[in-house]
Specification:
With 408 residues, the chain is of the alpha/beta class. 40% of the residues lie in helices and 21% in strands. The protein is built from 13 helices and 13 strands. The strands form 3 sheets. Strands 6-7-5-8-9-10 form a 6-stranded mixed sheet, sandwiched between helices. The protein has a 4-stranded parallel sheet with strand order 2-1-3-4, sandwiched between helices. The chain has a 3-stranded antiparallel sheet with strand order 11-13-12, with helices on one face. Helix 1 links the parallel strand 1 and strand 2. The chain is elongated.
C-alpha cells in the first residue's frame, strides 16, 4: 500500500539591505509568513548590505557563492527574494545556484491563485499572473529562441518567444472582456444601492488585521477566519441593522500588504473599487502588531493608488484583548478612532454608535406635517431615514426625522 504525501518545499529567504533602518528585517519576517502560507518551510535567511542590488545577479558574486553553499548545507529546493526580480536577475541566479528562484511578487500571486474561490477571483488572479509572465518571457535561455514554422513556410517562421507572447496577449484580451462584464454587473448592483439610498461602509486594512472577524461579529456573515495572511480573498457584502433601524452595507475587501504587486492591484481594481464608491471607510488595524504604524501607512498608500480620497474614515485598533492597556494609538487621518476586539466583541456597541453618528451627517433634519392622504411618505422615511417623532394631529401627521439629502 502506497501513501501519497505532499512534499513540503524547503526555501531560503534573501534580501538586500540598502541602508540602515530600511525595515529589511521586518519585511523578511513577513516574507517568511508568506512562504509558510504558501506551504513552504523556511530553512534559512541571507541578507546582504549594499548600496543597491546587483543589476545582473541581485547579490554580489561573493554573497552568491555563500548562498550556493547554504542551499547545499540546508538541502533547500530554492530561494525566495524579498524584492521583485528583473527577468535577467532571475535567470542568472537560477544558472548560478542551480535551484529554483522566486520573488515576492510570484509568491503572493501563488497564494492568491490557491485562495481564489469565485469566478471573478480566479479571473483576476489569472490576469495578474499572465501580466507578470509577459514581462518575464525574455532572457530565459535557448528555449525561448526556438524557431516555429515548418513545411511550406517562408523564412525562419515565428520564434517561440513571439508565439508565447501572442498566446498570452490573446488570453489577456479575453480575460479583459470577461472582467468588463463583471464590472458592468457590479455597476448595476451599485446603482441599485444608490437608488435605494443604501449606505455602504468598506472594510479595509492590512492582511490578517481581523477584517473577516469584524464582519462576522457584526453581521454573522460566516466568512472563514484564520490567523494567517490572505485567509480570505473574495470580497463579501452583508447588511447590518443599526439601533435606529437604519441599514448599512458592510463590504469586506482583500487585505493589503507592503510591496503589493502592481499587477495584482490592477487586476483586482474592480473589487478594490468598492472602497472608492463607499460612503465610509472602516480601517481595521492590528494593534497587537509592533509594526501597526507601518502597516497603517501601507494601507493609506494603497488607497491613494486606487484613488480613494476625501472619504470619512473610522479607524478600529483591533485585537485590544491582546494588549496590556497602556499603549497609545493614533491615526491623524481618521475622523474617529476606537479600540476594539472583533473576537471578543469589545467596543462593538460604541462602533455602531459612531457609525450612526457619521451616517447621520449625510442626512437633513426634516420637520413637516404630512396630509393624511400622503401618509405613504412616512413609510419611505422609515425605510431610508431615521424617524424621531410621529404625531397624529387634526391637519395631518407631524414628523421629525433625519432623511437622506437626495430624498428631500
Amino acid at each position: 500500500m502506497y501513501e501519497n504525501k505532499e512534499i513540503q518545499e524547503r526555501v531560503i529567504l534573501i534580501a538586500v539591505c540598502e541602508r540602515e533602518g530600511d525595515d529589511t528585517e521586518n519585511s523578511i519576517e513577513e516574507l517568511a509568513q508568506l512562504a509558510e502560507t504558501a506551504g513552504a518551510e523556511v530553512v534559512g535567511t541571507l541578507v546582504q548590505n549594499m548600496d543597491h542590488a546587483h543589476p545582473g545577479t541581485y547579490f554580489g558574486s561573493g554573497k552568491l557563492e555563500e548562498l550556493k553553499d547554504l542551499i547545499w548545507e540546508t538541502d533547500a529546493d530554492g530561494v525566495i527574494c524579498d524584492d521583485e526580480l528583473k527577468p535577467i536577475q532571475m535567470k542568472n541566479m537560477q544558472d548560478a545556484l542551480d535551484a529554483k528562484v522566486m520573488d515576492r511578487t510570484l509568491l503572493i500571486l501563488d497564494i492568491f491563485a490557491a485562495r481564489a474561490v469565485t469566478g471573478e477571483g480566479k479571473l483576476q488572479v489569472e490576469m495578474a499572473q499572465l501580466k507578470y509572465s509577459l514581462t518575464r518571457l525574455t532572457g530565459f535561455g535557448r528555449s525561448m529562441s526556438r524557431l516555429g514554422g515548418g513545411i511550406g513556410t517562408r523564412g525562419p517562421g515565428e520564434k517561440k518567444l513571439e508565439t508565447d507572447r501572442r498566446v498570452i496577449r490573446n488570453r489577456v484580451a479575453q480575460l479583459n472582456r470577461e472582467l468588463k462584464e463583471v464590472v458592468r454587473h457590479r455597476d448595476v448592483t451599485r446603482s441599485q444601492r444608490m437608488k435605494n439610498h443604501t449606505k455602504v461602509a468598506a472594510i479595509v486594512g492590512y492582511t490578517n488585521a481581523g477584517k473577516s472577524t469584524l464582519l462576522n461579529t457584526l453581521t454573522g456573515a460566516g466568512v472563514p477566519e484564520e490567523d494567517r495572511l490572505f485567509a480570505t480573498l473574495d470580497p463579501t457584502t452583508r447588511m447590518m441593522e443599526l439601533s435606529n433601524h437604519q441599514q448599512v452595507l458592510l463590504t469586506d475587501t482583500v487585505g493589503f500588504i507592503r510591496k503589493l504587486p502592481h499587477h495584482l492591484v490592477e487586476a483586482f481594481k474592480s473589487t478594490l473599487e468598492e472602497a472608492v464608491y463607499a460612503d465610509l471607510i472602516v480601517h481595521v488595524v492590528d494593534a497587537s502588531n509592533p509594526q501597526w504604524d507601518i502597516q497603517m501607512h501601507v494601507v493609506y498608500e494603497t488607497l491613494e493608488e486606487l484613488g480613494v480620497r476625501d472619504k470619512r474614515v473610522i479607524t478600529l485598533f483591533n485585537k485590544c484583548d491582546c494588549l496590556s492597556g497602556d499603549e497609545v494609538f493614533q491615526d491623524f487621518r481618521a475622523d474617529r478612532t476606537l479600540r476594539v476586539s472583533a473576537k471578543t466583541g469589545e467596543g462593538m456597541e460604541r462602533f455602531r454608535e459612531v457609525l450612526e453618528e457619521l451616517l447621520r451627517e449625510d442626512k437633513v433634519l426634516l420637520k413637516h406635517t404630512f396630509p393624511y392622504e400622503k401618509a405613504g411618505e412616512i413609510q419611505r422615511i422609515r425605510k431610508y431615514g431615521e424617524l424621531l417623532t410621529e404625531e397624529y394631529r387634526e391637519d395631518g401627521i407631524y414628523v421629525e426625522a433625519y432623511v437622506p439629502a437626495e430624498l428631500m
